[in-house]
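User: I'll paste a sequence; please echo it back and then give the predicted structure.

Assistant: Echoing your sequence first, then the prediction.
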Amino acid sequence: MLGEYRISGRRASEISASVERGVGEGALAPGQVLPPMRELAAELGVNPNTVASAYRTLRERGVIETAGRRGSRIRARPVSTARDSIRVDVPAGVRDLSTGNPDTALLPPLRDALGYAAERADARPRMYGEEPLDPDLARLARAGFDAAGVPAGPVAVASGSLDAIERVLAVHLKPGDAVAVEDPGWGAMLDLVPALGLRAVPVAVDDEGPLPDEVDRALRGGARAVVVTARAQNPTGAAVSGARAERLREVLRAHPSVLLVEDDHGHGIVDLPVHPVSGGGTGPHGGPWVFVRSVSKGYGPDLRVAVLTGDARTVDRVRGRQRLGPGWVSLLLQQAVVRLWETGAVDTAAVARSYGERRDALIAALAERGIAARGRSGLNVWIPVGDETGVVSRLLHAGWAVAPGARFRMGAAPGVRVTVSALEAGEMPALAEVFAGAVGAAPGRRYD
């Protein structure tokens, strides 16, 4: 059942560690079935309850899943395996369109901003026990939230969107709780949920965001939280419209205890207006909510700063847990972001226009060859395909690396993600022609 790998250990902690070690080393592959508990207990000479405890720990840690009589197996995306394990190894000379990174030419220079922060730190070094949030960052963040129609609430800061979302989920949910997540959706989110011992419930997405009926189904099925991407959804480029935001509010009003998490990581690269589901003055449903805004895409991934606001209890819990971990997000980085915002270092309209021209050019070139694609906002274009593995392989052979859709989906149909930031508009016809060959497309035939 496990090939040459042998699970070892006498205590539950040792057995679970042995399984995790096998997954991390690649000896236990995603989808591989584990021995029944009684069988493994007999092999190890331990009580079946010991193995049951080990398997429970592995489920809570997001390493394995159990499907009744079908037994326990390694998850498709076990937390012990890096999320980049489902990726393409890009040989030298191949154009890499798989990364999801912004165009470095559109990122602002950081010398002035970091120098400004360093001068302030030299004049007054920050010490333990001081306020963890820079007041200027809080002021600018709150002004931005107000302009976007995000309800009033305290401001906090985290080390990027995923860090913020992880902390919010951790302070509200317990292992075994279900979270409604977009499908296809951000690969890191699909990995984070099981890593926290939570259960992901897929929700289909169109160009206007999560489908309200799908969200309602997930919440009626017991989901305790829902995560919505405001704009530049990864991988489809969806952006929540005003009408969709209102429909989602209607759904949430019937579930006042559900946690709403909104992720606006597209801030700084999208010119579409944001339509917060949490809009409406005091939140949409009277329950806990958070709105997160990252600077990574517009100002640089290495600026690990995201601001968030939400109901007072949730934000207070996040701050409290943060104090017990890293303590605070570097004030140097916070003040650098303040400088970037105050000086208007990024022309959001120009950046959004640049990415939009590339997405539109690729989508149009594909359409001319009978291939439907999606990409309303952000850095990426999502292209449904029938044979995901074959298309990725054939494109790689032709000199183009794209991201396999398996990194971004649970039950959604196969597809591939193309990051347009490394392309110029004039290159799109050539790429589309190669893509058409990879999928066997012909004019008039559509792949959607």
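Residues 442-448 have pLDDT under 50 and may be disordered. The chain has 15 helices and 15 strands.
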